[in-house]
Structure formats: structure tokens, C-alpha cells
Specification:
Length: about 210
């Protein structure tokens, strides 16, 4: 552990020269990992390449905001059944001497890819897809999903639902913004392939 980063595991294999680590949980259990004070991950295995600024999570896995925030009834989360790759922000100089304690000091996310039955729950909205690529704002006031998520591209059997209606399509690109109250919402969407949009009793379809 170091500062607000914490990891509980049964086995850690660490290579000092390459700044790489493979972490395994006890049998029939999962790994629970803190990513700073705002995010937590749970996975069946974790691989860390600190020099490349990459963390790979073995599924099934979940990435969750650690706190509710103002006016939120539940924590936001991203789930995937197969794997995820997280790209970390530039917090360590290339070639810097990093000890094992600093190896697990994982601060800000730059981007991420989630693969396999991916489901996102974000401020009352639900997005499901086969694969999801996400970009994060490293300059956000905190690194919760609500504050840091900037854009996303969903691939394969995409379904988005919320208070404003539903969208089904093959691929969906989203750019997020925030209300004055701090709630995140998709400001811009680009849907492609077998598109169906529903709102109230109206429906629009397109190829």
C-alpha cells in the first residue's frame, strides 16, 4: 500500500528491472484494488506494466466510483466479462527508478478498453455493448467516473437507456458533459448500423 492506493492479494510476482507485476487472488476469490480515493477495481487477476503505464484486469471485472456524490442514489460502474486495459496518466518519468510500493500508486486514468458483455451504469443511464473504449479527462477535479469520463465508443449490440429514451445500434460514439449540478450526460451521440431510437411513444429506425 501507499497513500490512498491499496491492493489485497494472495500472490504478487514483481520484476524490479521491468517495473512489471502479476497479481493473483486466493482460489475462488477476486482482487480488490483501490485506484486513488475515487475509483476501485475488482478483478480475477491484475497485470501492471508501470513503465508502459498499463494495467490489465482479468474478467469478470468491475470498475466503480468509490463515493456517491451529491444527489446520486448509487455508485457509477463499468463491468466487463472478459478483460480490460487501463492506460494511466503520465505520473512517472520514463526510466525512473520505481520501487514496489510506488508500482501500485495508480493515480489518474488516461483511457481504457473493456471487452465482453460490457455494462456501464452512469448517473441513471445504462449502456451495454460487446466492447467499450473510454477516454478520461486527466484534469478533472476528481477521478470518479462521473467527473472524469470524457468520451466513449461502444461496439457491437449497443443498447443505451435512460430517462430520455432508448437507443439500439451497432456502434455508438458519445461525448459527455456535466450539468450545473455536476451530473454527467451524453452531450453528443453518433449512432451507426441498424439504429433504433425510442422516446415516449415515438420510434425512429435507420440503417
Amino acid at each position: 500500500t501507499r497513500r490512498d492506493a491499496r491492493l489485497e492479494a494472495a500472490r504478487v510476482e514483481y520484476h524490479d528491472e521491468t517495473q512489471r507485476a502479476w497479481v493473483e487472488p486466493p482460489r475462488d476469490q477476486t482482487l480488490k484494488m483501490s485506484l486513488g480515493k475515487d475509483l476501485a477495481a475488482e478483478a480475477s487477476g491484475i497485470y501492471i506494466d508501470r513503465a508502459a503505464r498499463i494495467v490489465k484486469l482479468v474478467g469478470p471485472l468491475d470498475l466503480r466510483s468509490r463515493r456517491l456524490g451529491q444527489g446520486r442514489a448509487e455508485r457509477s460502474s463499468i463491468h466487463a466479462s472478459q478483460w480490460a486495459e487501463l492506460k494511466l496518466g503520465q505520473t512517472v518519468r520514463a526510466g525512473a527508478d520505481v520501487g514496489v510500493d510506488e508500482l501500485f500508486q495508480l493515480d489518474r486514468l488516461e483511457s481504457a478498453r473493456f471487452v465482453g458483455d460490457t455494462v456501464v451504469n452512469l448517473d441513471g443511464q445504462r449502456l451495454a455493448a460487446n466492447r467499450l473504449d473510454v477516454s478520461f479527462d486527466e484534469g478533472a477535479p476528481d477521478q470518479s467516473l462521473e467527473s472524469a469520463i470524457r468520451s466513449a465508443v461502444a461496439f457491437g449490440s449497443v443498447r443505451l437507456s435512460g430517462n430520455d429514451g432508448k437507443i439500439a445500434c451497432d456502434n455508438l460514439t458519445l461525448a459527455f458533459s456535466r450539468t450545473e449540478a455536476g451530473r454527467v450526460y451524453p452531450q453528443h451521440m453518433d449512432a451507426l448500423g441498424d439504429v433504433r431510437m425510442e422516446r415516449d411513444r415515438a420510434a425512429i429506425t435507420g440503417k
